[in-house]
Design goal:
Blueprint (H helix, E strand, L loop, with lengths): L4 E5 L6 H4 L9 E4 L10 E5 L4 E4 L6 H15 L15 E6 L4 H4 L15 E6 L1 E6 L4 E6 L5 H10 L11 E3 L4 E2 L3 H16 L5 E14 L1 H11 L4 E6 L5 E6 L2 E6 L2 E4 L2 E6 L4 H13 L1 H19 L8 E10 L3 E11 L6 H8 L7 E2 L1 H11 L10 E6 L4 E4 L4 E5 L2 E10 L5 H20 L2
Antiparallel strand pairs: 1-8, 2-3, 2-12, 3-7, 4-6, 5-6, 5-20, 7-8, 9-11, 10-11, 11-19, 11-23, 12-13, 13-22, 14-15, 14-21, 15-18, 16-18, 17-18, 20-21, 22-23
Helix pairs in contact: 6-11
């Protein structure tokens, strides 16, 4: 098997310093672990100038699109990372699946309005990446063996030039406004309670959208948001019309490394306290909450079932249940479900069997998705979808695109939601949907 070539660069903890050099290149994309403030992520990965771009067609089945991704990845060809380096990407696919890609995998109603007109999935095929390893404090360009010497030289030069300071601005033309009034929210909440009492479902993840007209450079907005809310599954993906996906997600969807699978669902949230005592009390209350533990357990059970579709029988485990993770704006309850891919399955089979993530749909999943489509007036688009990479070795990591924004057609949208169960209170759920994105909305408002 051919081996990638690697060109070392000076280490930067903040990937924005390197990404600025390719910000305006076609297909520029950054998967960002939120360093130096966020501590959990190990790698940042950025690239541009894809060899091919693939978007799912409106009437294309999910299976057919995933097969197209598989075939495109095969055309690039397998490659190894030179020992002893451990790097997550040797060339391959980087892009997003929107929540509504689920419509290409399952038969769902079409009640929610598609007013954002975002393709349900969009990927580039990238033969190089700039990867920073925060554990070892290294930054390097990784080139797939098919890249020409001239192109390698060009890319080395791109990242060796000093980058001019970003002078572009971003601003809202008015405050971020919710699409739903509190009364609209209460009515939808009561409808969900009716479905739960009738035995249709146990939990429904219900979300509301906030939006405003905007102007300026989405990258400037992203840099301000990552400073205010650093998270380990952040990302920025430029869109062809000058728009962009901006994600400040704390949640992993599924990771595949040497055929080992892990998913880390988040269910259960409390705001950070105003002082250390209140903060500790909020965290302790979350850890002890029967409601939040029950919600988390429902999703763990759902994900065990989802992973079981593509994992070797008997390999699915729950090594971590109800652990606390704290972020700048909230505490979360997080669990971990692991497995090993079955011999005849790959990472794209795993996506087909488990997308969209159970933590942002509800249980049982398909019925919850039908109820979401009935009660949320507009399609979610990118929100609750996934940003992901999949390389030529079969390595994959993916986020759940919560705390995420879409800048498109001179408008910025942001969504907040949460899981509703039988003993939920509507005012508390309404407030939680705002708490989760408050730091993002306030940061944009103050630009």
């Amino acid at each position: 098997m051919s081996t990638c070539s690697v060109y070392p660069l000076p280490y930067h903890a903040n990937p924005a310093e390197y990404f600025a050099a390719i910000r305006h290149a076609p297909g520029s994309v950054l998967l960002d672990s939120g360093r130096p403030s966020a501590e959990r992520g190990r790698y940042d990965l950025l690239s541009a100038w894809p060899l091919a771009t693939l978007a799912v067609a409106p009437d294309e089945s999910g299976t057919a699109f995933l097969q197209r991704l598989r075939a495109t990845l095969g055309q690039l060809g397998e490659a190894a990372i030179p020992a002893p380096l451990e790097l997550p990407f040797a060339g391959g696919l980087i892009g997003y699946l929107s929540y509504d890609f689920g419509r290409h995998l399952e038969a769902l109603p079409h009640q929610a309005q598609d007013d954002l007109q975002l393709p349900d999935a969009r990927f580039g095929l990238y033969a190089w990446a700039l990867i920073s390893d925060h554990l070892l404090g290294t930054s390097q360009l990784v080139f797939h063996p098919t890249i020409s010497e001239a192109e390698r030289q060009r890319l080395c030069e791109v990242f060796s030039q000093p980058v001019a300071a970003n002078s572009a601005s971003f601003s809202l033309k008015g405050p971020m406004q919710p699409d739903l009034s509190p009364e609209d929210y209460r009515q939808a909440f009561e409808r969900i309670q009716h479905y739960i009492q009738a035995g249709d479902c146990y939990q429904v993840n219900f979300a509301q959208r906030f939006r405003a007209q905007c102007q300026g450079d989405a990258w400037t907005a992203y840099c301000a948001l990552r400073a205010a809310c650093p998270t380990p599954f952040s990302g920025f993906q430029s869109l062809p019309d000058g728009g962009a996906v901006l994600s400040l997600s704390p949640e992993r969807f599924v990771k595949v490394s040497q055929r080992q699978v892990e998913t880390r669902p988040i269910k259960g949230t409390r705001p950070r306290g105003r002082d250390a005592a209140e903060d500790a009390a909020n965290a302790a209350e979350l850890l002890a909450s029967p409601k939040d533990r029950a919600e988390n357990l429902m999703i763990v059970d759902l994900l065990r079932n989802d992973l079981g579709r593509t994992c070797r029988i008997g390999s699915v485990r729950v090594p971590q249940l109800f652990s606390l993770e704290s972020y700048p704006n909230v505490h979360h309850l997080v669990s971990s479900v692991t497995g090993e891919l079955a011999a005849d399955k790959d990472a794209l089979d795993l996506i087909a069997g488990s997308f969209p993530g159970g933590s942002i749909t509800g249980a049982p999943k398909i019925r919850a998705m039908q109820i979401i489509d009935e009660l949320e007036p507009t399609r979610r688009g990118l929100y609750c979808g996934s940003l992901l990479y999949l390389d030529v070795r079969g390595q994959m990591d993916s986020s759940i695109a919560i705390r995420s924004l879409l800048v498109k057609d001179a408008q910025v949208c942001c969504w907040g939601g949460g899981g509703i169960v039988a003993d939920s209170q509507w005012q508390a759920e309404y407030q939680e949907s705002i708490t989760k994105v408050k730091v993002l909305l306030e940061t944009l408002q103050n630009l």
